[in-house]
Automatic annotation (TrEMBL):
InterPro entries: ARM-type_fold, C2_dom, C2_domain_sf, Kinase-like_dom_sf, PI3/4_kinase, PI3/4_kinase_cat_dom, PI3/4_kinase_cat_sf, PI3/4_kinase_CS
Kinase recorded as keyword: yes
Keyword flag Kinase: yes
Organism (species): Lophotis ruficrista
GO biological process: cell migration; phosphatidylinositol 3-kinase/protein kinase B signal transduction; phosphatidylinositol-mediated signaling
Reaction(s) this enzyme catalyzes, per UniProt: a 1,2-diacyl-sn-glycero-3-phospho-(1D-myo-inositol 4-phosphate) + ATP = a 1,2-diacyl-sn-glycero-3-phospho-(1D-myo-inositol-3,4-bisphosphate) + ADP + H(+); a 1,2-diacyl-sn-glycero-3-phospho-(1D-myo-inositol) + ATP = a 1,2-diacyl-sn-glycero-3-phospho-(1D-myo-inositol-3-phosphate) + ADP + H(+)
One example GO MF annotation: 1-phosphatidylinositol-3-kinase activity
Stored SMART domains: C2, PI3Ka, PI3Kc, PX
Similarity comment: Belongs to the PI3/PI4-kinase family. Type III PI4K subfamily.
Designated name of the protein: P3C2G kinase
Domain PI3K/PI4K catalytic: start-end pairs: 220-498
Transmembrane segments: none
Residue span, PIK helical domain: 1-151
Length: 778
């Protein structure tokens, strides 16, 4: 806040409450710490009604040294359960720096909770152990650790001792493996792993520092290895004492400060909890990470996960530039359509979640080796050494140019190669909804980051770093404004070619290190599809005639290879769309030439089209078997799709009206204090007269408009039948809605596409609604 804003806030302090302000903000605006001002602060504190104990976290930062204020904050935090307290333990350990004695309320609270919960005691032990490395607070944290060990008792201290010994052995092995020469590194690891084997023979079982709920009884030496990055981190495969068949794989790293990774993952976990409380499951995979000392720590390995870089390499040299790389990889791993659709759904939600969290936290150094995909479809990010917008630079050029990672190959997979374009609209809606939910908790996120300002993290050490997150959260914006803003960020990310170039360079560098690329995995066709294709494949399709309606329909006789004959009616536009979809799905195939939509005057158009279309169908069905038996072709002529194989149709549709095939536009109209606001969200199924996709923009007019000053225009969405806008149009000084009409006209480079007139007096305000687009201006 500026000085003037602070003065205003302090002047109106008794008008503030938890609905319109934050208590740390009000008390932090006090002009001084003299006796009279502190008395006023106490008065505000006594009057304040906390709606949530987490509001008090901000009162424990370095900004509030007064012990009575800190005591009041701890009294609120006491209302948290042990599980809730566990989520915010890293921040509470950091603000212990500003306590004066072991008798302080916060110290007593943490020690008391460690007696109630082994999870709290365990995490508190490792956080204090790690904090001992902070030079200026080393003695203070040693005292706190001694107090915890005094309270913990003999059994728990024995556990701490075993875990400490395990970490020391791992540290020693990692150093020796890193120091060894390349030819001897594997042999050194093999010899040193014997020390771990002897350790487990001695202690029998040990809890993993990553999670005290995990009890391990040994290692599987053959599954242990190291990674070939600069630090040569170890991959250790522990034998689970509670489930011997399920090993627990972890990475032990030296030379990396994992405290920043811990913080980023913790904040992401908090955001995921916020979404789940709102009933929104973003299918987030958030792995565990623990710093166990200066420049060392443990990282959980997620099973059945592959880096995007490896997927790109499997697809050849230019894998990062291909649109269908991710789609082909998932299709290869899912023979059943039901599991493939479930993978799309998992990717749809998790990708949206990671777009939001990486944008808010400004996570940088995003290349294809830092993004992972599970076989089940979940996407997640790893390695958070750079965040809060601290991107690497080449000269004056930032390496991270996009707001976050959302590429055209991700869109291609979500929309199944353009077959379901409205899924992109649903993806944008999901991202914006998740973003707006998190924004409501901006103060909590900023408090958590502020409490870590003195943790010695390299990229979180000033108020400017907090301002970066504040600017990304935009708490001052309305939900409509934030939706419009985040939609622009999605489009910026989607159109950012340097991201693909960065991935390509990264892939080429990795290939030069590890050798040439592996040949791409063969594209397998599930056996049940092959059987079904044999039964359902089409021998020929012939147009027998047409009816002379305003929009003629052609009667098509379809003969299958099993000699079953069926009939369907199709329009010329439907044939045109089929050809367009085939072009997108098979860009490298030579398709038959499609008949022109235009014709010479005085010719018998429909009879000519019957001849041309029959020639097209003959060439299409007698050509490539892959084309002729494609799902698009089969569903077009037989009203059948492979989705009928699905045992459970796992639709990712968020909008129940998205199956409507009529042209439409989705609007949100709001009206408050003579201000009329219209948000244009999406359009669907819009086409030019020749059936092609328009480059559409919308024009708004508020009628009556005698002076013709009400025209507003949106940006143009290039060549898209289902464009997304999320743009806001505002009319001020609208005294009433009665008698006013909103006219919306859709055009494409001057060509009329559709229009709708909306009587504003009968509109449901502040609700998303689809309006049908007519084919003329009324």
């Amino acid at each position: 806040l500026s000085e003037q804003q602070r003065r205003i806030l302090w002047f109106y302090r008794y008008y503030c409450d938890n609905q319109n302000c934050s208590l740390p903000l009000v008390l932090g605006s006090a002009p001084s710490w003299d006796q009279m001002t502190v008395s006023e602060m106490y008065a505000v504190l006594r009057r304040w009604r906390f709606s949530n104990p987490l509001e008090a976290l901000g009162l424990l930062t370095f900004s509030f040294p007064d012990q009575d204020i800190r005591r009041a904050a701890v009294q609120q935090i006491e209302n948290l359960s042990n599980d809730e307290l566990l989520e915010y333990l890293p921040q509470l350990v950091q603000v212990l720096k500003f306590e004066w004695s072991l008798e302080s309320p916060l110290v007593k609270l943490l020690l008391d909770r460690s007696l109630q919960s082994i999870q709290v005691a365990h995490q508190l032990y490792w956080l204090l152990k790690n904090a001992e490395n902070e030079v200026h607070f080393k003695i203070w944290y040693q005292k706190l650790l001694a107090a915890l060990q005094f309270c913990a008792g003999k059994t728990l201290n024995n556990e701490f001792s075993k875990e400490g010994k395990l970490i020391r052995i791992l540290e020693d092995i990692a150093k020796k493996v890193k120091a060894a020469s390349d030819p001897k590194r594997k042999e050194v690891l093999k010899v040193e792993l014997n020390r771990l084997q002897r350790f487990f023979q001695e202690v029998k079982v040990c809890r993993l520092p990553l999670n005290p709920a995990l009890l391990v009884q040994g290692i599987e030496a053959d599954s242990c290895s190291y990674f070939t990055s600069n630090a040569f981190p170890l991959k250790i495969s522990f034998i689970n004492a509670n489930a011997p068949n399920g090993n627990i794989n972890v990475i032990f790293k030296i030379g990396d400060d994992l405290r920043q990774d811990m913080l980023v993952l913790q904040i992401i976990r908090v955001m995921d909890s916020i979404w789940l409380q709102e009933g929104l499951d973003m299918q987030m995979i958030i792995y565990r990470c623990l710093s166990t000392g200066k420049g060392q720590g443990l990282v959980q390995m997620v099973p059945d996960a592959t880096t995007l870089a490896k997927i790109h390499r499997e697809s050849g040299l230019i894998g990062p530039l291909k649109e269908n790389t991710i789609k082909k990889w998932f299709r290869h791993h899912h023979s059943l359509e039901s599991s493939y659709q479930e993978a799309i759904r998992n990717f749809f939600y998790s990708c949206a979640g990671w777009c939001v969290v990486t944008f808010i936290l400004g996570v940088c150094d995003r290349h294809s080796d830092n993004i992972m995909l599970t076989n089940a479809g979940h996407m997640f990010h790893i390695d958070f050494g750079r965040f809060l917008g601290h991107a690497q630079t080449f000269g004056s050029i930032k390496r991270d140019r996009a707001p976050f990672i959302f590429t055209s190959e991700m869109e291609y997979f979500i929309t199944e190669g353009g077959k379901n374009p409205q899924r992109f609209q649903e993806f944008v809606e999901l991202c914006c909804r998740a973003y707006n939910i998190v924004r409501k908790h901006s103060q909590l996120l900023l408090n958590l980051l502020e409490m870590m300002l003195h943790a010695g993290l390299p990229e979180l050490n000033s108020i400017q770093d907090l301002k970066y997150v504040y600017d990304n959260l935009r708490p001052q914006d309305s939900d409509l404004q934030a939706t419009s803003y985040f939609t622009r960020k999605i489009k910026e990310s989607l159109e950012c070619f340097p991201v693909k170039l960065n991935n390509l360079i990264h892939t080429l560098v990795q290939m030069s290190v590890t050798g040439s690329a592996k040949p791409p995995a063969p594209e397998t066709v599930p056996q049940e599809w092959m059987m079904l294709d044999a039964e359902k494949s089409i021998k020929r399709a012939t147009i027998l005639g047409f009816n002379k309606k305003p929009d003629p329909l052609y009667l098509v006789q379809v003969v299958q290879t099993c000699n079953v004959v069926t009939f369907v009616e199709k329009s010329f536009d439907q044939f045109s769309k089929l050809h367009s979809h085939l072009q997108k799905q098979f860009p490298s195939h030579a398709l038959p030439e499609f008949p022109h939509s235009w014709h010479l005057p005085f010719t018998d158009l429909e009879h000519k089209r019957v001849q041309d279309l029959n020639l097209y169908l003959k060439q299409l069905l007698s050509g490539s078997r892959k084309l002729a038996n494609n799902e698009l072709v089969l569903s077009f002529f037989l009203n059948w799709s492979k989705n009928t194989l699905a045992e459970d149709s796992s639709s990712v549709t968020l909008d129940p009206q998205s199956t409507d095939h009529k042209p439409g536009v989705q609007l949100v109209i709001s009206y408050e204090s003579t201000r009329l606001t219209i948000m244009l969200k999406h359009m669907r199924n819009i086409h030019l007269p020749d059936g092609s996709a328009p480059s559409a923009h919308a024009e708004f007019y508020l009628l009556p408009d005698p002076y013709e000053v009400s025209r507003r225009k949106t940006r143009t969405a290039s060549k898209c039948s289902d464009p997304t806008y999320n743009e806001i149009v505002v009319y001020n000084k609208v005294t009433e809605l009665k008698g006013r009409v909103l006219k919306l006209v859709v055009k494409s480079k001057g060509t009329f596409v559709g229009a709708v007139n909306i009587q504003l007096s009968g509109v449901q305000l502040n609700e998303e609604k689809w309006y049908a687009l007519g084919n003329s201006v009324i």
